[in-house]
Amino acid sequence: MGELLREIGMIARALDSISNVEFKELELTKGQYIYLVRICEHPGIIQEKLAELILVDRTTAARSIQKLEKAGFIEKRPDVVNKKIKKLYPTEKGLATCPVILQEHAYSKRVALAGLSEEEQTQLQQLTKRVRKNIEQEWDFVKKGGIRNYLEE
Question: What Å distances lie between residue 91 and 14, 62, 65, 67, 68, CA to CA?
Answer without folding.
Answer: 29, 18, 13, 14, 10
